[in-house]
Amino acid sequence: DSGALAIAEHEGKVISTDTDKIFLSVNGDTISIPLVMYQRSNKNTWMHQKPGVQRGRCIKKGQILADGAATVGGELALGKNVVVAYMPWEGYNFEDAVLISERW
């Protein structure tokens, strides 16, 4: 759901992977899947995809080929054991804040 993943549109076999492309063999044809390399997003951040498949692997349609900057194995990976609360600050209903606690 992050929109930063490269997902296989066809079944096939991985011929080779590079930092900016993944080559697949699909029914005898070679398909090149371009990866996003340090591209600016609309939110003034950058997007980058890392290949997540190895050469020689058979893939299925819908399988994840490359991860984004904040994903691992297709799942969002922003941290470990983080306690977060989204709440009004100082009892008012404006200027909402995200509070991150260091305690459990």
TrEMBL record:
It is an enzyme of class 2 (transferase). GO terms for molecular function: DNA binding; DNA-directed RNA polymerase activity; ribonucleoside binding. One of its GO terms (cellular component) is DNA-directed RNA polymerase complex. The keyword Transcription applies. GO terms for biological process: DNA-templated transcription. Its EC number is 2.7.7.6. Keywords: Chloroplast, DNA-directed RNA polymerase, Nucleotidyltransferase, Plastid, Transcription, Transferase. Residues 8-103 form the DNA-directed RNA polymerase subunit 2 hybrid-binding domain. PANTHER family: DNA-DIRECTED RNA POLYMERASE I SUBUNIT 2 (PTHR20856). Belongs to the RNA polymerase beta chain family. This is DNA-directed RNA polymerase. It comes from Anagallis sp. SBB-0474.
